[in-house]
Amino acid sequence: MQPRPFNKPVLLKAAVLIVILGAAAGSAQAAEPISVDRQSGLLHLVRQDCGSCHGMTLKGGLGPGLLPVNLQDKPDDTLVDIILDGVPETPMPPWRPLLAPGEAAWIVTQLKKGLK
Ligand code: HEC
């Protein structure tokens, strides 16, 4: 029996898998791995820098409260956009220079769970 150079069904499955993986990598920003060191740096940033306006316990100050009860009804995407780009005409600054989109998404997840 002649060895077949290509196994079509397997190649097709591989191609489909590559397309699926590619799409997942493109859309799931939150899936970027964030190192443990960076995570503690981000939590420090949230407590210090965000806390300077949102209150040291995030109950609100110059900016609104960022506790789970304040954020639970707001879509993650909206909150991520606010963190990255700020809110024009208000004191909320854009954090894009300091935070990757995946990091902003991670912060939103932590805020919605409640910081430890
Ligand atoms: C200089 C003050 C200031 C700092 C620093 C600041 N914020 Fe804000 N933030 C605000 C204000 C004021 C608003 C309300 C804007 C408005 O009127 O819509 C706001 C709004 C928000 C909202 C939307 C809340 C909601 O309920 O819609 C989120 C989320 C948020 N900030 C997260 C952050 C995070 C995370 C940081 C730190 C990385 C941060 N902020 C740092 C002032 C600040």
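^ heme C complex. DSSP finds five helices and no strands in the chain. Helices lie at 8-27, 36-54, 68-71, 76-85, 101-113.
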